[in-house]
Here is the input.
Amino acid sequence: MSARDIDGRFAQGWGGQSPDGVHVNVLLARRGSATAAAIATAFTAPSPGFTPVLASIGPDQQSYQTLNPPTVILNKSAPAGPEHENLIFGASSVGISRGVLDIVAEGLIEADQESIVLVSLWVDAAASDETLVCQNARVATAAAVREAVLGRDDAAAKDLVKHRETIRHPFYGGK
Here is the structure.
């Protein structure tokens, strides 16, 4: 698959178990595309409680390095307090970075400035184990980026259509 084929691809991933489980949605883009422009707009439009950050990694602030491909992380819910904020911007950021780099190591995307990854992140306000949150963010991100690049199995997609009247969601209790 050429790098140009990733533009505009979406997927989601889940890692771990509640309350330390992590859910992400990803959007992949190529620099210069309308998708990349939308990600840049999201990055430059913070609102109270929702702060897009560029994944930067390093042992201390003075040593930060930009993750390649550039990865913009946007939290889906406002931090519930200082500990939750650390899980979002610390543990999850490291896990997301590791997950993206796992996919680079698999050869599915390039570690360049031409590809862009947007990760929309949800961490339960009851989460407390930063190591589990980090691991779960890694698993969720790698799964989502992998699915976005490779697509879903046709049989699984057709099965959803076939069973559309009985699909469920944990936040829906109706019939």
Observations:
- The CA atoms of residues 52 and 173 lie 32 Å apart.
- Strands lie at 10-15, 22-30, 53-54, 56-57, 65-66, 71-75, 115-123.
- The mean pLDDT is 93.
- The longest strand covers residues 22-30.
